[in-house]
Amino acid sequence: VHQSKLDFFCKLGYGKEDICKVLENLGQEALEDDVLKELIRMGSKPQALESQAQPSPLKLIARGSCSTSPGSKWLGEDESDSSDHLRPIVIDGSNVAMSHGNKEVFSCWGIQLAVDWFRERGHKYIKVFVPLWRKEPPRQDSPIADQHILEELERQSILVYTPSRKVKGKRVVCYDDRYIVKVAYEKDGVIVSNDHYRDLQNENPEWKWFIEQRLLMYSFVSNRFMPPDDPLGRHGPTLSNFLSKKPVLPEPKWQPCPYGKKCTYGNKCKFYHPERLHQAQLSVADELRAKTKVSLSLGKEEEQRNHP
User: Fold this and answer.
1) Who's near 32: CB < 8 A, 6+ residues apart?
2) Can you give the C-alpha Rg of the chain in angstroms?
3) Pairing between strand 170-173 and 190-192?
4) Which pLDDT score, from 0 to 100, does residue 130 have?
5) How far apart (Å, rounded) are the C-alpha atoms in residues 182 and 178?
6) Please, are residues 205 and 158 in contact by the beta-carbon 8 Å criterion?
């Protein structure tokens, strides 16, 4: 009986010491309800409730800090960014590295600059695609700078190598652009590249629309990764809205009239006139009509006074 009651209350989450004390006080034949009341009176709580009552320690991280551990949450594949308002980022590693190296050197530092830029914005899903043969020692015809960065990004689960192998001394390389577009399309993300992927656009009409609407081009200015503020042109969305799942519409702003006080459109003018805030915006013709009516009425009054 003692063991069965002990097991029963242990399953409820109470400690063995508290259960034994209550059973000693009430006796082994005590009812379960009486034992439970005594446990509650003693202030004993189930372990599950105690763990909920104790707040988990919070870690303070500086805003914009990119010093995250390799096993942090934003690197995991299972941690989907459905709750996040920022789009997933898929980087064309070869394009970025060659652009930073002036199309002469495969500069891995350019990839790191691009990754850091999106990290600081708060993007959780960042993937970089690079052909597998870039892990090989650099050769004279294909120089590589800062190759250790690739190893570090691979360790952080950011960099993904596309397959390649050698057959009879010749290198067989899989088309990495197809990986980039396919992953970005499935994740509903953004492609970071200066390549237009015209062959893939002709291959799939859905990819064509996606590449046209989700391709983010960039420039390197003095080792600074700089995407444009208007990725889809002057009349398109801002960079912030382009990278967000839920774009924020700007507040409507009235454009001041270029003619200012010399404007003759009156109330038909579509621009903003700060000098007419407390005035009825009449057109020139209406103002002239109003003036003529006033002058005619004044003239009649004077005639009536002169000729009673």
Assistant:
1) 5, 8
2) 36
3) unpaired
4) 92
5) 6
6) no
- DSSP one-letter string for 259-281: TGGG---GGG--SB-GGGTTS--
The answer to whether the pTM exceeds 0.85 is no
Beta carbons of 211 and 202 less than 8 angstroms apart: no
| Sign of the CA dihedral with 48 first, then 53, 59, and 62 last | positive
**Cα(39)–Cα(21) distance, integer angstroms:** 9
**Tell me, what's the pLDDT at 184?**
92
d(Cα 226, Cα 110) in Å, to the nearest integer? 11
Neighbouring CB atoms inside 10 A of 224's CB total 9
- The model's pLDDT over 41-56, given as tens digits with 9 standing for 90+, comes to 776 666 544 454 455 4
3-state DSSP helix/strand/coil % of the chain, to nearest 5: 45, 15, 40
126: tokens are 């960042």
- State both tokens at 168: 């009879």
| Phi, psi for 289 (deg, rounded to 5) | -65, -45
Rounded to an integer, what distance in angstroms lies between the CA atom of residue 159 and that of residue 161? Answer: 7
Answer yes or no: are the C-beta atoms of 186 and 130 closer than 8 Å.
no
Extended beta strands in the chain, E state: 89-92, 106-107, 126-131, 144-145, 159-162, 164-167, 170-173, 190-192, 215-216, 219-220, 225-226
Looking at residue 259, its amino acid is Y
Which residue bears the tokens 């067989």?
172
CA 46 from centroid of its chain's CA atoms: 41
